Amino acid sequence: MKDLTARVAIVTGSSSGVGAATARLLASLGCNIVVNYNSNAEGGNQVAEECRAQGVECLVAGGSVAEDSVCQSIVAGAIEKWGRVDILVNNAGTTKFVDHADLDGLDSDDFQRIYAVNVIGNYQMIRAVNTHMQRQEEGGEVVNVASTAAITGIGSSVAYAASKGALITMTLSLARSLAPKLRINAVCPGFIEGDWLREGLGDEKYAESMAYQMANSVLGVVATPETVADAIIHFITGPQIVTGETLIVDGGRHLTQTPLTRR
């Protein structure tokens, strides 16, 4: 297992959910952390305190990765403090909850907003760390957080599924072009238990959907922020020969995937 002691990791969108769980897990392995948030400053500061409590150093950086200046600033802060960046977890993401058959529920602004974070933001973050990782003897690790929506075409909206599909394609392209110094992989969570989906779906639909997903998962479970974080860490600390790969994290739900029947 790769030793992460005193390494430096940037985790975008890490004020809650998968990003927060990943930041805490990396900190437990001795990694110094940059916590990024867009609007949840309180959550970002709380996660940073939890990381520091594990004996590592931590920076908190606010702002949306849709803005290239924010991406550059996040990386510059890490370089100024530690002189290196070893790990980038591109977790920041956004969506709009719209039934896939409701074509009037999305417009070009929705697509551009979702792509700006889910695709362009990831690209900008990789571009910002690339120069520094290329110069480091051991290079660097990038993990993009995509979704099973990219593979199944099922998810919170057509725009979201399409953006995650683009993210997987970008993972392949950059894994090839930025090697051998950078290893770039992607995780594809399915339904993730937690506040993000609960707030997006509403309590009743969230409970219904989670029950449906669990009943139709071959392992009888759904993902949690912690299980997705485990998958992310696997790419970072596991076999160092792996790049350009996509790991589905959904309890085997994709093996039986069909849309939730409309009522």
Overall description:
- The relative contact order is 0.14.
- The longest helix is centred in the middle third of the chain and has 28 residues, at 108-135.
- The protein has 263 residues and is of the alpha/beta class.
- Helix 1 crosses helix 9 (225-237).
- Strand 1, helix 1 (17-28) and strand 2 form a beta-alpha-beta unit.
- Strands 3-2-1-4-5-6-7 form a 7-stranded parallel sheet, with helices on both faces.
- The protein has helices at 17-28, 41-52, 68-82, 108-135, 149-152, 158-177, 195-201, 203-215, 225-237; strands at 8-11, 32-37, 58-62, 87-90, 140-145, 182-189, 246-249.
- The protein has one domain (8-256): NAD(P)-binding Rossmann-like Domain (Rossmann fold).
What brief labels describe this structure?
263 residues, alpha/beta, Rossmann fold, seven-stranded parallel beta sheet, 9 helices, 47% helix, globular
Categorize the overall geometry.
globular
Q: Determine the CATH superfamily.
A: NAD(P)-binding Rossmann-like Domain
- Give the tally of β-strands: 7
- In N-to-C order, the SSE pattern is EHEHEHEHEHHEHHHE
CATH class placement: Alpha Beta
Category from helices, strands and their pairing:
alpha/beta
CATH T-level topology:
Rossmann fold
Helix content: 40-55%
Radius of gyration: 18 Å
**Which architecture does the CATH hierarchy give at level 2?**
3-Layer(aba) Sandwich
Look at the structure and give the mean pLDDT. 95
Poorly predicted sequence stretches spanning 5 or more consecutive residues:
none
What is the count of distinct domains? Answer: 1
Q: N-to-C terminal Cα separation, in Å?
A: 48 Å
| Strand portion | 5-15%
Number of separate helices? 9
Strand neighbour order, sheet with most strands? 3-2-1-4-5-6-7
The biggest sheet amounts to: 7 strands, parallel
